[in-house]
TrEMBL record:
GO-annotated molecular function: carbohydrate derivative binding; glucose-6-phosphate isomerase activity; monosaccharide binding
Pathway per the UniProt entry: Carbohydrate degradation; glycolysis; D-glyceraldehyde 3-phosphate and glycerone phosphate from D-glucose: step 2/4; Carbohydrate biosynthesis; gluconeogenesis
Positions annotated as active site in the UniProt record: E342 (proton donor), H373, K502
PANTHER family in the cross-refs: GLUCOSE-6-PHOSPHATE ISOMERASE
Top-rank EC class of the record's enzyme: isomerase
Protein name: Glucose-6-phosphate isomerase
Annotated source species: Paracoccus alcaliphilus
Subcellular location: Cytoplasm
Primary localization: cytoplasm
Role summary: Catalyzes the reversible isomerization of glucose-6-phosphate to fructose-6-phosphate.
Gene assigned in the entry: pgi
EC number, UniProt record: 5.3.1.9
Xref: Pfam families: PGI
The keyword Isomerase is annotated on this UniProt entry: yes
Length: 536
């Protein structure tokens, strides 16, 4: 019997050299039919080679993979993270009125209590009741890595128009240059340091936290009084000197890369205030409600996932570019890079068998229009198509600079059109002829100006980048990753791939200090020797 995957591959092969433009010509309503809306978000996926037949097969694939049942299991608190024996309930952090059972207990009460404590602390700090030794807190330094950095850093940058609290800075890298540059110019007496580590053992984070404490100790009498911990390890936070009233914990059913909705998002709450933070949560909850209730054929996360499956597993395109035409979404590609590649960059299925299909793609990107002057050359004329995901707001926040925004939007839409249409050799010849070229030189120059086109893209259109809209976008991509993982049969909620290198680093460190160390390969030993020589 032919499998659904084989039928999809056959359908793609049968399309041959068909061009996207012909799909629009054959179906005048294609732009409308292949666009889907929910709560003010519009996803246009018409500029792909997914036709009605491919769409139906992809929906059959999703249904057959059990997406709906798995979705309900996640929302209901089942332990779908099977390799770690955990529920997956980051959704509970943004729906404080729900009732969710884990091991027979309703967890929402604890979530709500932590949220309320965060909000009270944020109000105290923002209104000056919680202060540093030098007075009102002016700066917040968030120390974390991975999900404890990428999510809040992305969100704080995105929400810049709503900042009315302290300035926020983010330290993640164990490279001393990171914390040196971030602390430079700050006043320890008016700085709050947030240490974000669930276990309070993450080596990069704790190394930076100790450095920050030493920096503060040179200026204030009680450095720990200006530290907050986002952690569940109360014994370790106490050893560090942080008062329990300034420790905000979260459960093991919240994965790091899904944690911006709770205590890990404290820096965002401090920057924009509890009320606007709640709007961010509401946007995520609205997307949850849509994802949980909408039919597969009208479901934004499902459709975005199916577009991704089509491009990577069926068409064989190895990467995906996320291109937000909003400079404040500067860190969104990096955030989604972790979300998607750490979640779905696996090699075995849930049952431990080898995957027979490629797992997740490489995800990368930059904001427009910067990317146009960096890597769009490859996107337009390179030999390997790169599916592009454009994100655009209809309105910016700077009304006096609206002409900038119109130009930005024009570039976004023009790029998606150019990727689809391209430029034929005949069109390039005409262009060169208009410049006065002829003969062999015309032909030579024309070939360099051919754009193959037929390159796929989607466009996510929002009204304005508000806290609510940001919540929608983040939750949309979270659920997209979940659906892709279900279809591929993998666990999107563990990350064993980050472990081995960290373990070996502890063994390499003595080698760099000149101590005897066994078990290393010849290349690593020689690199360590040369490293020591260069250090003198």
């Amino acid at each position: 019997m032919t499998t659904i995957w084989e039928r999809l591959a056959d359908h793609r092969a049968a399309q041959g050299e068909t061009r996207m433009e012909s799909l629009f010509q054959a179906d005048p309503s294609r732009a409308e039919e292949f666009s889907t809306s929910a709560d003010g978000l519009l996803l246009d996926w018409s500029k792909t080679m997914i036709d009605a037949g491919a769409r139906d097969l992809l929906l059959e694939l999703a249904a057959g993979a059990g997406v709906e049942a798995r979705r309900e299991a996640m929302f209901s608190g089942a332990k779908i993270n099977e390799t770690e024996g955990r529920a997956v309930l980051h959704t509970a952090l943004r729906n404080l009125s729900a009732s969710v059972q884990v091991d027979g207990q309703d967890v929402i009460g604890g979530v709500r209590a932590t949220h309320d404590r965060m909000a009270a602390f944020a109000r105290d700090l923002r209104e000056g009741r919680f202060a540093g030794q030098g007075g009102r807190i002016t700066d917040v330094v968030n120390i974390g890595i991975g999900g404890s950095d990428l999510g809040p850093y992305m969100a704080v940058l995105a929400m810049a128009p709503y900042h009315d609290g302290p300035r926020c800075h983010f330290v993640s890298n164990v490279d001393g240059a990171d914390i040196h540059d971030k602390l430079k110019g700050l006043d320890p007496a008016t700085t709050l340091v947030i240490v974000a580590s669930k276990t309070f053992t993450t080596i990069e984070t704790m190394t930076n936290a100790a450095t920050a404490r030493d920096w503060m100790a040179g200026s204030v009498t009680d450095p720990a009084a200006q530290f907050v911990a986002l952690s569940s390890a109360l014994d370790r936070t106490a050893d560090f000197g942080i008062d329990p009233s300034r420790v905000f914990g979260f459960e093991d059913w919240v994965g790091g890369r899904y944690s911006v909705w709770g205590p890990i998002g404290l820096s965002l709450m401090l920057a924009i205030g509890p009320e606007r933070f709640d709007e961010f949560l509401a946007g995520g909850a609205a997307m949850d409600a849509h994802f949980r209730s909408a039919p597969l054929a009208e479901n934004l996360p499902v459709l975005l996932a199916l577009v991704g499956i089509w491009h990577h597993q069926i068409c064989g395109y190895p990467t995906r570019a996320v291109l937000p035409y909003d400079n404040r979404l500067l860190r969104l590609p990096a955030y989604l890079q972790q979300l998607e590649m750490e979640s779905n960059g696996k090699r075995v299925a849930m049952d431990g068998s080898d995957l027979t299909l490629p797992s997740g793609p490489v995800v990368w990107g930059e904001p427009g229009t910067n990317g146009q002057h960096a890597f769009y050359q490859l996107i337009h004329q390179g030999t390997t198509p790169v599916p592009c995901e454009f994100i655009l707001a209809a309105r910016g926040h700077e009304d006096a600079l609206d002409h900038h925004h119109i130009l930005l939007a024009a570039n976004c839409l023009a790029q998606s059109e150019a990727l689809m249409r391209g430029r034929s050799l005949d069109e390039a010849r005409a262009l060169m002829a208009a410049k006065g070229l002829e003969g062999a030189e015309l032909e030579r120059q024309a070939r360099h100006r051919v754009f193959p086109g037929n390159r796929p893209s989607t466009t996510l259109l929002i009204e304005r980048l508000t806290p609510f809209a940001l919540g929608q976008i983040v939750a949309l991509y979270e659920h997209r990753v979940f659906v892709e993982g279900v279809i591929l049969g993998i666990n999107s909620f563990d990350q064993w791939g980050v472990e081995l290198g960290k373990e070996l680093a502890l063994k390499v460190e003595p080698l760099l200090k000149g101590e005897d160390a066994v078990g290393h390969d010849a290349s690593t030993r020689e690199l360590a020797r040369r490293f020591r020589l260069l250090r003198g």
